[in-house]
Design brief:
The structure is a homodimer. By secondary structure, chain A is of the alpha/beta class. The first copy, chain A, has helices at about 15, 40, 50-65, 85-100, 150-160, 160-170, 175-180, 215-220, 240-245, 255-285; strands at about 5-10, 25-30, 65-75, 80, 85, 100-110, 125-135, 145-150, 190, 195, 230, 250-255. In chain A, helix 9 runs parallel beside helix 10 (about 255-285). The two termini of chain A are about 30 Å apart. The first copy, chain A, binds a DNA duplex through strand 4.
Chain lengths: ~290, ~290
DNA sequence: GTTCCGCATGAATCGATAG
DNA sequence: ACTATCGATTCATGCGGAA
């Protein structure tokens, strides 16, 4: 049996990344601290300084990624003084200048988004998952994230609430009703570039940037077993935990010691559950 | 009874717009020809030339819009040679330089997007609806687009405990307490910035850029009756048709004569249905 | 085992007030 | 004038205990 390696390093990604060999990582999936967010833990990066702060890190990411690898960047710009900030779209342009290909933009649709009411805007229910690549020939295992149509038809349609049916507003039969017959003789369908995951809001000790489903989906899509996954902003270690459960090697970098300690404990714990949870992560594809 | 005016002009928006008075339009909602798309109808604008082509038009749009008005731009960059084009995000940056405020980015989630399969990407199921404003004090009628409350309310709001009825602002200063009693008689909640509209799949020879629900939603949100709505790329006239049904005055501009003829016929037709459809568009709010 | 119910909490944003 | 802090507003979900 081949051992799965899961490592977490304490320090600044800009520095630590230099110790990782070039062309060695299959997938980078991360959610960096957003501008002016998490001030109490990360100090908060000023929006005007965000691109400048990120580029040295992404330069290293470009170096360590395999030519067939993928970089997924989960990020969302804040609204301030009535406007959306532009640092994220400026970052896209700068990353391309750095040599990255901007392959795709996935939308993470958060149904249970933050509450609140303002006179000039509604609640923000989505985030960007930007896909960047080093070359046009990257690995993509589309079949791994297919949605079983049986489950979709039975589960999704059955679970669809009455309000969902009203909200989704499938007028003149162009929604579920009309097209369902097309899927009767198929077993699975490919997903789209809009992903639905609920945010995590547990009453436990810490908060995670994204739910486990998010890195799980991208790991399944862009890696196979024993590949290497990197999260340069590991935080509470969601990416590493999921990678380990899915039998991928992983490396995390985190600047806050308390998070690093926590991740190390989590990794230890998971070893006991590795075999119990294998089935869940290996076969469910429950999207 | 006040008459509703619906006008369609034949010509290039860059020129025709100069005949419209400044500060006279309450809402601009449009879906311009996408770069390199609809070559057979519009001649196709090269992606590299897109921003340059659009800016003279948006300059006029800025002039004709009221200070309290809103500009909704429905657009999506195409994928070419394995990459997403950057002309849309470059356009956002240039529009800000022109004086526009980039207030928000709505996501139009197309649940029944076009089928297809590619080795390097999934089906594209979303488009941007970019909101721009002239000032920070724009009109917004949020109550007009409220949606039914989620099912969670059914089971949970029946019996409120005493602690539910008092505000509880304690705990880690996260800011949010609860006052569930606010929702006791609540049947509707505010929507988010993710919109679900099914695409129209008609096999006519003209390209309907968006379904009626899309302009209807923004017209309801940003205008009241007898306000003025403008679509500088009217196409088959969806915006005008909806505006008329909703008792808003409207102006359309379209460069192709056959579209203009078609729109004029449609407008005539709708006059017979004005009173029949009033109820549907005035009261349904079926989102 | 299920289902139901109480409860905590979340990458938020604006406007007013204070330094 | 410009920045920092504080108060107000709000909806969906998972967890855990009870029925």
């Amino acid at each position: 049996m081949i051992e799965i390696k899961t490592e977490i390093f304490l320090g600044d990604s800009k520095d630590i990344l230099k110790d990782i060999g070039e062309n060695s990582i299959d997938l980078i999936v991360t959610s960096p601290p957003y501008a002016d967010r998490r001030k109490n833990t990360y100090g908060g990066i000023k929006p005007e300084k965000y691109v400048e702060w990120f580029l040295p890190i992404s330069k290293q990411l470009l170096r360590v990624l395999k030519p067939t690898g993928t970089f997924i960047l989960n990020i969302k710009e804040k609204a301030e003084d009535g406007e959306r900030h532009t640092y994220v779209i400026e970052l896209i342009l700068e990353l391309r200048k750095q040599g990255w290909l901007w392959t795709e933009e996935f939308i993470w649709h958060k149904k249970n988004c933050y509450p609140g009411k303002w006179p000039n805007r509604f609640r923000d229910a989505w985030e960007r998952c930007l896909q960047f690549n080093k070359t046009k020939k990257f690995d993509m295992y589309q079949e791994e994230v297919m949605v079983p149509i049986g489950d979709w038809a039975n589960g999704r349609l059955k679970n669809l609430s009455e309000t969902d049916k009203i909200r989704d507003n499938s007028r003149n039969g162009s929604g579920f009703g009309k097209n369902i017959s097309n899927w009767l003789n198929r077993k699975e369908v490919y997903p789209t570039n809009v992903l639905n995951f609920a945010t995590v809001c547990n009453n436990k000790n810490h908060s995670a940037a994204f739910p486990e489903e998010l890195p799980e989906w991208f790991i399944r899509l862009f890696t196979k077993e024993f590949d290497w996954v990197l999260d340069p902003f590991a935080g509470s270690g969601t990416t590493l935990t999921v990678a380990k459960k899915m039998k991928r090697n992983s490396i995390g970098i985190e600047i806050l010691p308390e998070y690093v300690d926590m991740v190390r404990e989590t990794i230890q714990e998971n070893q006991f559950f590795l075999f119990e949870t294998k089935e869940k992560y290996g076969q469910s594809k429950s999207f």
